[in-house]
Amino acid sequence: MKKLTNYYFLFIIVVTVLEMVNDNIDLFMNLFIALLILFIMKIIINFIEKKIHPDEYNQRLKNKEMEKALLLLVKSSDMVKVSKYIKLLGNGKNLKDVFIIYKDKELCSLNEYKKNYEHQYQILLEKVYQIFNDASVQNVNQELIKQEDKKAQLFNDTILKIDNLNEDIPDEVISKALDKCSFHLKKLQQLLADYPQENDKIKKLHQHYLPILLDILEQYCKISQVNGDTKQSKENLIKTIDLVNTAIQNITSSLFEKDELDMNVNMNVLEDLLKKDGLIDDQLTLSMEELYKKIK
User: Fold this and answer.
1) Which of these ranges, 48-57, 62-71, 126-135, 167-176, has the smallest mean pLDDT?
2) Cβ(98)–Cβ(89) below 8 Å
3) pLDDT, tens digit, for every residue of 64-93?
4) What is the DSSP annotation of the chain?
């Protein structure tokens, strides 16, 4: 607000000077020139600040991002629980419309808290930003779970069709090969929930290789019913099924090669330990307690 007031007074000064210097130019043109000058000055000032105090400049940008996240979180929830005793309540339009509730007592608006407890406000802001990110991650995880559920049923129809066609094929060798195909597909399907990343080989198997195999099996059933089985057609079909089985096994094995450690697990563990030991909330809670005693 202070910075905005400074720009306002500077704007008035620039317009006044331009009015004195440019008698032949109307007021609207002077206003436009003044705005242009202020815009250029703002760019120059920001550039200088970024070069001289990069940490402070980056922190201001980060704070703006965190405040937007805070307002979005408050707007989307009836009440945001920050800790056991601290809650935020408001419409989420701006900081002055968001109020701090401490031990079920309304302390002040976030805007007032920011002015009087700058350092503690920073802690509160970072904590709420973490809650916002956790909520975003949870939404992403829920979407991943839905995708994983779909993948866990990816080959259901194909397995059912293979089993049904297998019943129409009396040859024992072909039948065993198809049993193996169903078994390998079920095994691959069970692993998909643990490996949610996109895999081109699985996509091709589902969309291209298996449909072709089903077409071949359907054609074989029709031909064998009319003309009977031939040795050559049996051998070719067994060879084809064996090739598909080998391909499924290779795809299944390749999934294990992509398994990587997730270092976010350790980061979350560390954060939980800090919260448990009270190292994050100390200063924040003290400032809330101070306000609570004043209004009690």
Assistant:
1) 48-57
2) yes
3) 888 888 888 788 777 788 888 888 888 878
4) -HHHHHHHHHHHHHHHHHHHH-TTS-HHHHHHHHHHHHHHHHHHHHHHHHHH-HHHHHHHHHHHHHHHHHHHHHHHSS-EE-SSSEEEEE-SSSGGGEEEEETTEEEEEHHHHHHH-HHHHHHHHHHHHHHHHHHHHHHHHHHHHHHHHHHTTTTHHHHHHHHHHHHT---HHHHHHHHHHHHHHHHHHHHTTT--S--HHHHHIIIIIHHHHHHHHHHHHHHHHHH---HHHHHHHHHHHHHHHHHHHHHHHHHHHT----THHHHHHHHHHHHHTTTTTHHHHHHHHHHHHHH-
Q: Which of 137, 133, 219, 221 has its CA nearest to residue 175?
A: 221
Distance CA 131, CA 127 (A): 6
